[in-house]
Amino acid sequence: MPFVVSRESAGQRLDRFLSLRIRWLSRSRAQRIIEEGAVDAAGRRLRPSHRVLAEEVIWVYRRPPPEPPPPDLPVRVLHEDDALVVLDKPAGLTMHPTSRHRLHTLTGFLRQRYPGTVARIGHRIDRETSGVVLATRHLEADRALKALFERRAVEKLYLAVVRGRPPEREGVIDVPLAPAHEGPVRIRMEVRPDGLPSRTRYRVLLDAGPYALVAAEPLTGRQHQVRAHLAAAGCPLVGDKLYDRDGEIFLEWLAGGGRMTDDLRARLVLDRQALHAWTVALPHPILGDRRRFTAPIPADLAALIERHAGPGWREALPSFARSGPPDWL
After folding, report:
1. What CATH number belongs to 76-316?
2. Where are the domains of the chain?
């Protein structure tokens, strides 16, 4: 992977230069990557202390990490017709191929299920988030679904288990979000006055010991919006490596090669963030009638809630008409 040094970056140590260019990279991690294989345009090995020059080209070579095994749970098809596909994505499955996840992806599942077509995913949820994902089977449906998202005609409701509680039982978190530009972890979103307008409607459904079950509806579509907003409200998601404790756990997890240790598991409670894309309602992109699709609450979240709130916790969940809004709106 080549990096071209700008005039503004000239004179920086190479480890600092890389840690600024790659948002998730800590300084110590950058040093290890450089020692594994960083060279200049002439092929000369470089050290972390190398002072970069304006217009210099730095090449970084990394061995692809071994791909983790696929999630234990399969992708479930909640609905399929000639235009629209609705999937229940398990936690741990990426949407698209990455350097670490190349074979086991949601796009790979669509290619195998619908050979000879170009099935397209209509939106994204994080790898550790479970739940409803919309996809289309042809270009006309893809364009129509994108138009629905642009008109904000798609209603998405998430369930989150959070540490602590928001200051109010229900309300709208209305604070702007922008990519973090300071601190050791820069793939986070942070509250900033110069960020993009971001609004999330929420309601506390149930108290569960030190945790709470929260329904959250993103009214805008920013990256990590529900996670960042709930963390900003003082109640980060259980298991959220990135937004709990200012990302310190994420750096520990990353330094350990993305493996969960007993210590990390004890602090996080769950191996993944406790966020589930529970239900989506929208007009069918081709037929136009309004429909609602719901993904069952996965066993790991259900067990956590029941352990702290008792077996009757499902009575606190909102009820839905097939196509209407949830009763708490």
Report:
1. 3.30.2350.10
2. 2-60, 76-316
Tens of pLDDT along the chain (329 residues)?
Answer: 788 999 999 999 999 999 888 766 778 888 988 988 899 888 899 999 999 999 999 998 876 666 667 677 899 999 999 999 999 999 999 887 766 656 679 999 999 999 988 899 999 999 999 999 999 999 999 999 999 999 999 999 999 999 999 999 999 999 999 998 776 666 889 999 999 999 999 999 999 999 999 999 999 999 999 999 999 999 999 999 989 877 778 877 776 777 788 888 888 999 999 999 999 999 999 999 999 999 999 999 999 999 999 999 999 998 875 545 555 45
Report whether 125 contacts 114 (CB < 8 A): no
Q: Is there a common fold for 2-60 and 76-316? A: no
pTM, two decimals, is 0.80
Could you give the residue numbers annotated as active site?
126
Domain spanning 2-60: CATH superfamily: RNA-binding S4 domain (3.10.290.10)
b/e burial code for range 126-165 (CB count within 10 A of at least 16 → b)? bbbbbbbbbbbbeeebbebbeebeeeeebbbbbbbbbbeb
